[in-house]
Amino acid sequence: MKFNIQREALLKPLQLVLGAVERRQTLPILGNVMIDVQSDLLLLTATDMEIELVARVKLDNVTETGTITTSARKLLDICRNLPNDINLDISLDNERLLLKAGRSRFTLATLSADEFPYIEDAPTDNEFNLQQQELHYLLQSTYFSMAQQDVRYYLNGLLFEIKDHVIKTVATDGHRLAFCQLAKSDINLEPSVIIPRKGVSELLRLLNETDAPLTIYITDKHIRVAADDFTFTSKLVDGRFPDYDRVIPRRGDKLISLDAMVLKEALGRVSILSNEKYRGVRIQLSPGLLKLSANNPEQEQAEEEIETDYDNETLEIAFNVSYLQDGLNAMPKGPVILSLTDANSSLLMESDIDSNRVYVIMPMRL
């Protein structure tokens, strides 16, 4: 194996695949990146056995093809610390990876590519196309409501399903739920799968908000997302997601419409003096007014009033302020509509601009 590449051309794909490198390194080779040099193409592959990332780079100067694995982090650190606009000569010498750049020279240990574990391909009829911005929109609107290390393992992921030409993503941790949908008349499939938390996080890191094309493949055990410069594969969570339709309430009769940014900034100020453990904030509604308040064990207190168009009866209810902030962060700028039925009901948060996103928060006791 022998090829020449610019430092920037190698650095970007190395950074791209690093998210799949096993941090705990239960197997030494899981800390490695596989370098596969073909006639005019460099493939960099990393995996932790749950997700797999392959980055592709066009090569102009290939002297000898070949495949080997070496430490992903060491190779990345070397590239990061080299000067910009420098050329790298990379070759294999006596089972060592030799890297020359200007007056710098590095020799790295390797492991055979034969030992490198792949996530196997599987035949699938569930293949469809999306733009990167469309998948980014669906995931960004819901990912924050996934559970973290919940014993209900199926909540530690995000539901991705297609039904009646509509793609839906749903995430919940049992205390709040985020829902997003996107109509795609050209997709005539009906898969329903749960993408694990790490898979969702890595996908969001890879995607950009452009119309660049993606091809998505779904099997019983994996989801694969292929772009021009990368291929991402993740195992799926084997479980049954809760019936989210039963959780999303109908719009209540107590409606408040106000600017999302105004509410977000007010919550940010009030939350400073909330209880650090429970993060509770109290909402008091009266005609024309929304009052926010929070206190903590040190007897400190914060209050904020916002004028609204609310014209119903007086109501008092409490929520986790972090949940409210997460929902507002996922909403577009502009008016947001909050609806309640009574002091014990869930809060339904909707955007007045984008009706495809819905956010539900359970109340808490203070």
> What's the domain count?
3
Mean pLDDT: 95
Helix content: 10-25%
Q: Which superfamily, in CATH terms, is the homologous superfamily of the largest domain? A: DNA Polymerase III, subunit A, domain 2
Specify the structural class: alpha+beta
Distance between the termini: 65 Å
The tally of strands reads 25
Q: What is the correct CATH architecture of the largest domain? A: Roll
Q: What are the low-pLDDT stretches, counting only 5+ consecutive residues below 50?
A: none
Q: Your description of this structure?
A:
The structure is a single chain. This protein is α+β, with helices and mostly antiparallel strands and 366 residues long. The chain has 7 helices and 25 strands. It has helices at 7-17, 72-81, 132-140, 197-206, 244-247, 260-270, 321-330, and strands spanning 2-6, 32-37, 41-47, 51-58, 61-64, 66-71, 87-93, 96-101, 104-111, 126-131, 157-163, 166-172, 176-183, 192-196, 213-218, 222-226, 230-235, 254-259, 280-286, 289-295, 301-307, 315-320, 335-340, 347-351, 357-361. A hairpin with a 3-residue loop joins strand 2 (32-37) and strand 3. The radius of gyration is 25 Å and the shape is elongated.
Q: How would you summarize the topology of this molecule?
A:
Blueprint: E1 2-6, H1 7-17, E2 32-37, E3 41-47, E4 51-58, E5 61-64, E6 66-71, H2 72-81, E7 87-93, E8 96-101, E9 104-111, E10 126-131, H3 132-140, E11 157-163, E12 166-172, E13 176-183, E14 192-196, H4 197-206, E15 213-218, E16 222-226, E17 230-235, H5 244-247, E18 254-259, H6 260-270, E19 280-286, E20 289-295, E21 301-307, E22 315-320, H7 321-330, E23 335-340, E24 347-351, E25 357-361
Antiparallel strand pairs: 1-5, 1-7, 2-3, 2-6, 3-4, 4-17, 6-9, 7-8, 8-9, 10-15, 11-12, 11-14, 12-13, 13-25, 15-16, 16-17, 18-23, 19-20, 19-22, 20-21, 23-24, 24-25
